[in-house]
Design goal:
Layout: E1 6-10, H1 15-26, E2 30-35, H2 38-52, E3 56-60, H3 68-78, E4 85-88, H4 103-131, E5 134-139, H5 152-172, E6 177-182, H6 190-194, H7 206-218, E7 223-224, H8 228-233, H9 238-252
Parallel strand pairs: 1-2, 1-4, 2-3, 4-5, 5-6, 6-7
Helix pairs in contact: 1-2, 1-7, 3-4, 4-5
The structure holds NADP nicotinamide-adenine-dinucleotide phosphate.
């Protein structure tokens, strides 16, 4: 990781992605920030360029649409930019009873959390292979380790991210490309608010998660689990945790009598 490198971060307009952008900027990396909220990205880009004298490009795009990854890749190529570090951070999670949830929500989660992430990893890793150098940080979750009743599709997407990323870590390492999976637990972001978790006493600050991720990435870690409580959580028996998730999410989904 050199400080002339360029980092592409999806979902950089808020939460963990925004904090990751700040950490990389602090270490003088150039940035490509992607999300749907162009105005938020522009404000952040101006702030980071002023403070750190780096180059920041912004790309406003909905990554839950079919073909979004290819479109984003082509935008980057058109600007003649090289991505040294790809951060697949954008993700969405809906809570609720699976059979009652609109299928469009399941599809949005599958498309953004799995398909776009997979396609971006493929497209950018091919470029990294040519240069024999690169890093990829994929956002999974402590939810990657257990089934999640009442948040089933989301947890399953994150199980995919962990399995997929750990597997390609082995494939890409000989090309000097490191694939790191970040597995945060509850973190105080818009995402956590939507999932009703921001008040959890265990919820971490997103800047702490981002700093831990940066250090782990620098040290070529395969999997990063920020926070002691989360490290313990993922080692508990899967059935026990899944039952805890069931009770907690059932209440949130308003299905508790
Ligand atoms: N917070 C937690 O408790 C927690 C725990 C474990 C894992 N995670 C994971 O951490 C990652 C970041 O989440 P966060 O907690 O930081 O949530 P957040 O504050 O809601 O941020 C999500 C980011 O993703 C972007 N995004 C959402 N849908 C998008 C779309 N269709 N196209 C492009 N960008 C999109 C959002 O930007 P726009 O709305 O501007 O598009 C935003 O920048 C996610 O992958 C999430 O699953 C979060």
């Amino acid at each position: 990781m050199n400080n002339t490198d360029t980092v592409l971060i999806t979902g950089a307009s808020s939460g963990i992605g925004r904090e990751l952008a700040k950490v990389f900027a602090l270490h003088s990396y150039n940035l490509i920030l992607v999300s749907r909220s162009t105005e938020k990205l522009r404000k952040l880009a101006n702030q980071l360029m002023d403070e750190h004298k780096i180059r920041v490009d912004i790309i406003g795009q909905d990554l839950s649409k079919i073909g979004a990854a290819k479109k984003l890749f082509e935008s980057v190529m058109d600007r003649n930019l090289e991505v040294d570090i790809l951060v697949n951070n954008a993700g969405i999670g809906y809570v609720g009873l699976f059979n009652e949830m609109e299928v469009e929500k399941d599809i949005e989660m599958l498309q953004l959390n799995i398909i776009t992430l997979t396609e971006l990893t493929k497209l950018f890793s091919r470029e990294m292979i040519k240069r024999k150098k690169g890093k990829i940080l994929n956002l999974a979750s402590t939810g990657s380790f257990v089934p999640g009743p009442f948040i089933a599709t989301y947890y399953a997407t994150k199980a995919y991210v962990l399995s997929f990323s750990k597997a390609i870590y082995k494939e890409l390492k000989p090309y000097n490309i490191i694939v790191t999976t970040l597995c945060p637990g509850a973190t105080k972001t818009n995402f956590a608010k939507a999932a009703g978790r921001e008040n959890s006493s265990l919820a971490m600050e997103p800047n702490k998660v981002a700093k831990t991720a940066y250090i782990g990435l620098k040290n070529n870690k395969r999997v990063i689990i920020p926070g002691l409580a989360n490290k313990i959580l993922v080692r508990l028996p899967s059935n026990l945790v899944s039952n805890m998730v069931f009770k907690y999410q059932k209440k949130l989904a308003g299905k508790e009598k």
